[in-house]
Amino acid sequence: MEHECTNGRTGLRGKAAVVRFRVDEATHVLRLDGPDHPVRAHGLGAVWRWQEGEGGHLAWVELRNEGDVPLYLETVDVLTAVPSDLGGPPEAWSVYQNGWGSWTPTFSRHLDDGLYTDPGTPAYRRMHQPHWEPEVDGVISSEWVSVLVAGRSLLVGFVTAADQLGEIRVGADGSGLTARCYFDGALLTPGGSVRSEVLLVRSGPDPLALLEGWAETMGREMRARGGDEMNLVPTGWCTWYTYYGENTADDVLANLEAIGRYDLPLDVVLIDDGYQTAIGDWFSLDPDKLPEGMEPVARAVRDAGRRLGIWTAPFGAAADSRLFADHPDWFLRDEGGEPVVGWTHWGTDCYALDCTHPEVLAWLGETFRRMREAWGVEFFKIDFIFAAARPGHRHDPTGTRAQALRRGVATIREAIGDDAFLLGCGAPLGPCVGLVDGMRVGPDVDPNWHPLWRHDLSMPSTENALRNAIARAPFHGRLWLNDPDCLLVRQRGPDMDLVLNEMRTLTALVALLGGLTINSDDLTAIRPGRLKYLRQALPPTGVSARPMDLFENELPRLLVLPVEQEWGRWWVAGVINWEDRTTETTVRLEQLGLPPGRYHVYHYWRRRYLGTTDDAVTIRRHQPHETAVLILKPVSEHPDLLATTFHICQVEIADCRFEMADSNLQSATFDLHKAGRQFGEVLFTVPEGWRPAEARVDGVKRDLRFVAPGVVALGLTLEGRAVVEVGFAREQGSRGNGR
What we know:
The chain is α+β, with helices and mostly antiparallel strands. It folds into 3 domains: about 10-220, Beta-galactosidase, Chain A, domain 5 (Distorted Sandwich); about 230-545, TIM Barrel, CATH 3.20.20; about 640-739, Immunoglobulin-like (Sandwich), CATH 2.60.40. Helices cover about 15% and strands about 35% of the residues. Strands 3, 4, 5, 7, 8, 10, 11, 14 and 15 form a 9-stranded antiparallel beta sheet that branches. An 8-stranded parallel beta sheet has the order 25-24-23-22-18-17-16-26. Helix 8 links the parallel strand 22 and strand 23 (about 420-425). The longest helix has 18 residues, at about 360-375. The protein is globular.
């Protein structure tokens, strides 16, 4: 990755730090204009640190109560400055706006004309705007990190996030930039000391590389869990988008049987919301849905060789729950002493638990240990966890919102053990790094393309879910494993409004993004032919494609997954048409990040060879909401593998060996490995002067057929493993120099 931030150059003018705090009822502001110079006022000592590091600059503020009375810390602006030298006027800037939580809109926002609209409702502010101030206007708020892009790019992002919420504010007119930590009025006792989160400032020519580099640094600083190997990325089936909480034990068992009958490589069976009688009463099960309790279902899942997953919303309790009735002192309180509403769940207010209260933490630990040990749960989805970071009076007056949330998640992590998978959802992102294995990175996917209200980018819809998942692709494998939400492949009907192109786009992007792949169809009623799409996204690669135009388009159109093996190199590109109309799309190879050269192009969904190019690819009749998946392979003078149709990202090719018997004969042997049972094709390019000779699958002779001039295909049913051998011979009169 290329970074430039040397000799003190940051692209910022008028740098300073600012501390806001209270003594008794008086609010004070302390400004620090230079690094490493201690400043003291009203009993507070402060030092601003600013040093070179991580290919840029690192900054933080150290605070100490040097007086004899308590201090209450409000905010620390680790950096205030005016951006400069970006090579363009502010109205032409693109600003990366990272949302507060899993569902909060995230994209690279264009200041001159953008798609973002603030719904302005109390529910929206509660879920998505933790720092909302009615008097602030003309400011773009991004949580933890932002990238400003004009001629040059400037990244400003916190690389630690365990103790304070961090916000980057950018003036829409370019008037200023602020990187702020929220201490939330936390008590600092005499003699006590604290430090702000650490900020990274880095500039360079490639904004995508800057964002990826920030995620790598934050992941390292906060000891992110997980990895990018294929076998670490969960697959599964979820109850939600078929039953919406109304599923019974019999429904789960019937789908479990269908997973086995169709030989689907789905590991986790996730029971989502609805099994409990009330939020917070997790062991009070609905007798109409689970008349024999959870244990028989858990046992059946284990006996089938799969893992049980469970949904909870652990940091809240319904107003009518037994938990709230028995322990009203466990909950956050507002200024009037009333319990703080975390969220409203299907019409019922859920109050936010105080995760600084030791009894709350003890209850959380006991609850999750019991689920792990008594039910055998191995996959935990914790939802609506932003509730722990709601403003309110806490048991521990020294704790911040970030610390309260992190204490709650850390307690769950310890209770379930390191070998269980923990998926965050409805989560403020930063404080969860290092504790969760996976993270939902967008709104609910929903079986509709557009949201009910087009202007609310946080509402459930496939469009909104995918926009966020693409914008947060750089986090995958660096902070956690990304969860783009469930994959739906069922046919269109009363409970599914996605047309074929939209379903294929969802399938393609889930596969290209490489994260969790969890299906949520009724597998007992699905048309078996639809399962081919699910199979083509399994298993997840564990590696995310790169959104090449993330900073050019608020709806990125180009995803590229480079694949390099010892025996070959190719690229899988997803070219998205977000429009509601058919268009013609031309993409230049340089936009895809391909090195100069000539490439074969294969259109995966249309099963069509598009020929060769050294310049651009044109997709004619690019239909509404269609993602054209293109496989690009360098042209060779010898016969070569072009593509397979078993997986969008070609992951089933375990090995490939080419041999030249002499200058006129070539053979290729391919080892294919893929769980499940699936029909597909292997395609080969046959340059002029060559012809296919024979083909065998596991030693049995098979026919090859021409599907386009210079391209042959071999069909087979892949059941776990297969060895494909193909021979080619030179046409008489052709001469070659060997491979």
